[in-house]
Design a protein that fits this description.
Elements lengths: L2 E13 L4 E13 L3 E5 L6 H8 L7 E6 L2 E2 L5 H11 E4 L11 H11 L5 H11 L15 H13 L5 E5 L7 H18 L2 E5 L11 E6 L2 E4 L1
Parallel strand pairs: 3-8, 3-9, 6-7, 7-8
Antiparallel strand pairs: 1-2, 1-4, 4-5, 9-10
The structure holds adenosine-5'-triphosphate and magnesium ion.
The site of adenosine-5'-triphosphate has 12 residues, from β2 and α1.
Length: 223
Amino acid sequence: MSALVEARGIVVDYPLAVGTVHALRGVDLTLIAGEAVCLFGASGSGKSTLLNVLAGLEAPDAGSLRVCGKDTLALSEEQRTALRLRSIGMVFQENNLVAQFTAGENVELILRCQGSSAPKRTAIELLGSLGVAELADRLPIDMSGGQRQRVGIARALAGDRAVILCDEPTGALDRTNSDVLFGLLRDLAHSKGIAVLIATHDRDAEKYADRVLEISDGELVTT
Ligand SMILES: Nc1ncnc2c1ncn2[C@@H]1O[C@H](COP(=O)(O)OP(=O)(O)OP(=O)(O)O)[C@@H](O)[C@H]1O
Ligand SMILES: [Mg+2]
């Protein structure tokens, strides 16, 4: 099995006016192709920080990181962005759709960047798999929080990425839609060989996971 993400000894410290927050204290994490992994942890335990580091959005203070075999910390900013676009889909805790674009256009954007032959049709199909195809022509401001989150998930799934990182993907969803989403992510991992990491408070996610990790005060504990 190939390791798509290999993080070793990841340390992130945030200096404060007084003192330092040790957000990650030497985290080791490997994600294998085809597995869906859940990351549980209390608020402030370091989940978002870890996902941001894995995605290359935030540089750690120490440690090493390989994504799809590449030493991402040795890449230039430009190369890292290109690798992220090609290889990593992210679902953010805070919704971050492009406000001026419709739901369909938000998903199409990624597909076009990747040279998709039918971006419009594929975007509608992806939105449909999350039950929001009818929102394709609607702007984010005209949707509910849960609808926006599902569009964000469709966008993360666009473009056949090797790794999908989800930060509280079901925070704005009801029980039924949360279950649909966890099931969808697990099926994608298994059928397409994607490595999926889901940071969540939702303990129900556990039944869809191949592996469960727990982070506590910046340290990873495997349960
Ligand atoms: N930019 C920052 N500056 C200072 N401290 C920060 C910053 N970002 C995060 N932290 C701190 O780092 C720690 C980890 O934060 P992080 O956002 O990773 O937690 P989390 O597990 O995602 O929490 P939640 O479940 O509430 O989203 C927390 O103590 C937080 O206050
Ligand atoms: Mg968070």
